[in-house]
Design goal:
Strand content: 15-25%
Strand order of the largest sheet: 1-5-4-3-6-7-10-8
CATH topology of the largest domain: Rossmann fold
Order of helices and strands: EHEHEHEHEEHEHHEEEHHHH
CATH superfamily of the largest domain: Vaccinia Virus protein VP39
Helix content: 25-40%
Length: about 290
């Protein structure tokens, strides 16, 4: 893990920095920046860089609405070429930017080495602790589910402003009985209050992804303890047979008697994907207390 510590210097505007108020100019700046450092976006890391200033300002809106203190450090996951990082430090937030790609980290470091409010770490965000209260991320598509679960497990993280593929957001927000509903829906809805923000077309990024994205806001309502680890475990097992009748699947997979299952409020006809998050929590609680 490589750490870049910034120098103490006044933040100033310069043509070398991202022009964050014009989509056209930000697009041109991004292409120029990538050419300058001979960077070719990597598909395997889902590298697609934000060029829509509207998203930056929406992130800023939510930081203010959530009363994020400018003296606390925001963790930015997947900081890329530093456009969001620059927006945050320009608005006087302190940022710990985490970027796995060493070439991007070295290039974006050149932007922030003058700024005392930004620290850049070249590391895999999934392998280091989140020592911050607030997370911001234009999330790389390949790590969406893993990042959500890590944020959920990190109890010191109370707020997160995240950008995901729209289909991931549909899964997170899904209701019982829908095709999108699954273990991610249950876990995230139980741990966080979820607010959905704006939808952004592929043209908001360079290179263009194949799908639209959506900004979401998570605010923690429950700490992630043994109950939620048990919830992870049982949902992983039960959703392998999501369309089968819950009574038989729970009995067979978890070893509960049918009478005990019925006492939890589960009838004979309901299927796994039709059970509410609250029912899954009841099952997890029963399993935890049976240890």
């Amino acid at each position: 893990m490589r750490s870049f510590i910034t120098y103490n210097r006044i933040i100033i505007m310069s043509i070398e920095y991202p022009p964050i108020y014009s989509k056209k100019r930000l697009f041109q700046w991004t292409k120029s920046f990538l050419r300058k450092y001979n960077i070719k976006p990597k598909d395997r890391l889902s590298q697609s860089f934000l060029i829509n200033p509207k998203m930056l300002h929406e992130i800023g809106y939510w930081l203010e609405k959530l009363s994020v203190n400018k003296n606390e450090t925001i963790c930015e996951i997947g900081s890329g070429i530093g456009i969001i990082t620059y927006y945050l430090v320009r608005n006087e937030y302190k940022v710990l930017a985490i970027e796995i790609d060493s070439k991007l980290a070295n290039a974006s470091y050149e932007l922030f080495k003058r700024f005392k409010r930004a620290v850049l770490i070249n590391a895999d965000a999934l392998e280091i602790p989140f020592n911050c209260n607030t997370i911001v991320s234009n999330t790389p598509f390949h790590m969406s589910s893993q990042l959500l679960l890590k944020i959920a497990r990190s109890n010191n993280v109370s707020k997160a402003i995240l950008v995901f593929q729209k289909d991931v957001v549909e899964r997170i927000a899904a209701k019982p009985g829908t095709k999108e509903y699954g273990r991610l829906s249950i876990i995230i809805q139980q741990v966080f209050d979820l607010k959905r923000g704006s939808i952004y077309s592929p043209s908001s990024f360079y290179p263009k992804p194949k799908v639209s994205t959506q900004l979401i806001v998570l605010v923690r309502k429950n700490e992630y303890g043994l109950l939620y680890y048990k919830l992870e475990e049982i949902t992983r097992v039960l959703f392998t047979e999501r369309r089968k009748k819950a009574l038989s699947v729970i009995s067979r997979k978890l070893g509960l008697s049918k009478s005990a299952i019925k006492e939890l409020g589960i009838d004979d006809k309901v299927r796994i994907y039709q059970l509410s998050p609250e029912i899954f929590v009841k099952i997890a609680s029963y399993m935890r207390d049976s240890l």
